[in-house]
Amino acid sequence: MKRNHRKQAGSRLAELFQAYLLNHAHGLFSSLGRLTRTPFTSAMTILVLAIAISLASSFYIVVANIQQLTGNLESSNQMSLFLHDNITDAAGQKLAEQIQQNGSVMEVKFISKKQALEEFKANSGFSDALNALERNPLPSVIQVVPKNALESNEDIEKLMSDFKQFPQVDFVQVDMQWVARLQTIMLIASRGVMLVSLLLGFAVTFITGNTIRLELQNRQDEVFISKLVGATHAFIQRPFLYTGFWLGFISGFLGWLIMTIMLLILETPVEKLSTLYNSSFDLLFLSFSEFILLLMISSVLAVLGSWAVLHYQLRQLKPQ
Amino acid sequence: MLRFEHVSKRYPDAGEALTDVSFHLHRGEMAFLTGRSGAGKSTLLKLIAMMEQCTRGSVLLDGQDITRIGERKIPYMRRNLGLIFQDYKLLNDRTVFDNVALPLVVSGYNHQEVARRVRASLDKVGLLGKEKKHPLALSGGEQQRVGIARAIVNKPKLILADEPTGNLDPDLSAEVMFMFEQFKQVGVTVLIASHDIELINHLGHRVLTLDKGHLVVS
Asked: Which of A50, A124, A236, B53 lies at a CB distance of 3.0 to 4.6 Å from A251, suitable for a disulfide?
């Protein structure tokens, strides 16, 4: 008798669970169906959301591309010692050998005036213009790579002032300085992107929340009747949460599509520009995992906005 | 089954709607609630349906005090009630079947059980075969019967009806009342708010009369 009772309770629990799953499945698909029943309104909302999402992800990808461009510069902290115009190649070579003796120097390379010109002609695309010049305007350069790379600014500055002492040296330029500046600029840019994305994320949350609020108003009768027949808040808000999920998910996908199309439009001119600079720069697109993350973030934000509105409004809605 | 103990209800801006109301309905008892408009009929029903809370006294449903019940428990308590409205309160964008099934779906019954109970319920009100129709395709009397089928599908202990015959002609009204008497026969407690003095007197059940918030005949 008791066992029978327990068995019954167990099967009721299984039934409840089965009904619960069915209810979720129903919520998932019926909310999608409901969105298609008001195509114009749904399309407007989704487009607005998609534009916000594509803006945020475009900013992100632009910064990622610039970072890719500057990425290989990160470790470069070499110094360029520009020599006076009257220094001969032999004297320059000699100075380079002398510098090589310095304990904190790892690598030294002497580039003669002629070499510098050849290199510049090959890489710049200005060879015709350079040929027209009567004399070589470029100075000889000694490139120095210090040993304890980037470890201490003071060491590098000391080394720099040492090199400045040589009478043959016109001036010393540390590449690190502009790399550091560029990195700082990139830091500011990525912070900015983060802040703008945060704002756009809020926009997604609020737009979805407001859409759900209107939907709730349109379906007030349904909410009242469900409440009167004993529906819990969880039951009533479920289809609305799924509507929010779909809004976020679809506009996340559409936002990605918009951004990708924009990148595809930019790809050809960017590649053209990159060949003009003699570099092989590949435009970076969103990776698959980043794409999945984008879908997840937009869905979560939309569900969050819907949930906040439902949590507040369902309490306010009292059947008359 | 249903017990009111010195119940008063005061609205902040409309004054006292019910004053010191006490009565007791037994299991399987059928009673009418009458009184002029504004006498407090709707307020009394709203207290039972947990749509309002009384200011003083207590309302007991099947021995449980529902006056100070927590917000979270209200849905589960409501599943013991069958509510019927003058304007039917059906969802016009759903079929008759889905309307009647709503209380069961809400309570988490499985598909087969829902289908079985909905058919049984529709059979009781004589609407079997109209499951796939939409409410607006039915006559007023049929719509009210859909409302009744929805109220009884969950096998409630107490049925509350607010002017259920208000929009129906005398023949249909008698038909609906006959249904309520059948529910009473199987042990369901029925409380019907109604203006229709003639019909009430004809049926001869217990009558609760409200006047300006006071219970004058019980």
From this structure: A50
Note the CATH number of domain A79-148: 3.30.70.3040
| Contact assignment for B89 to A225 by CB distance below 8 Å | yes
Nearest by CB to B107, from A225, A230, A233: name it: A230
pLDDT value at residue A320: 64
ipTM of this model?
Answer: 0.91
**Distance from the B183 Cα atom to the nearest Cα atom in chain A, whole angstroms:** 18
Strand (E) positions, chain B? 2-11, 15-25, 30-34, 56-61, 64-65, 81-84, 158-162, 189-193, 206-211, 214-217
User: Residue B95 — pLDDT band, cuts 50, 70, 90?
Assistant: very high
Whole-number pLDDT of residue A310: 95
Query: Does B106 contact A221 at a Cβ distance shorter than 8 Å?
Result: no
Which is it for the CA torsion A250, A302, A299, A24, positive or negative?
Answer: negative
Cβ B91–A15 below 8 Å, yes or no?
no
Partner residue opposite A226 with nearest CB, options B79, B81, B102: B102
Domain boundaries defined on chain A = 27-72+181-316, 79-148
Give 10-residue mean pLDDT values along chain A (320 residues): 63 83 88 90 95 94 84 64 86 87 82 83 73 80 74 72 85 74 83 93 96 93 92 93 96 97 93 79 89 97 96 81
Domains and CATH numbers, chain B: 1-80+156-218 (3.40.50.300), 92-155 (no CATH)
CA distance B24 to chain A (A): 23
Cβ–Cβ of A19/B108 closer than 8 Å?
yes
Residues of A in Cβ contact (< 8 Å) with B83: 228-229
The token pair at B45 is: 């029903």
Q: Which residues contact A131 (CB under 8 A, 6 or more apart)?
A: A121
Task: For A109-122, give the DSSP string.
Answer: EEE-HHHHHHHHHH
Interface test mutation site (partner B, options A30, A229, A236, A238, max chain B beta carbons within 10 A): A229
Averaged pLDDT, B67-95: 91
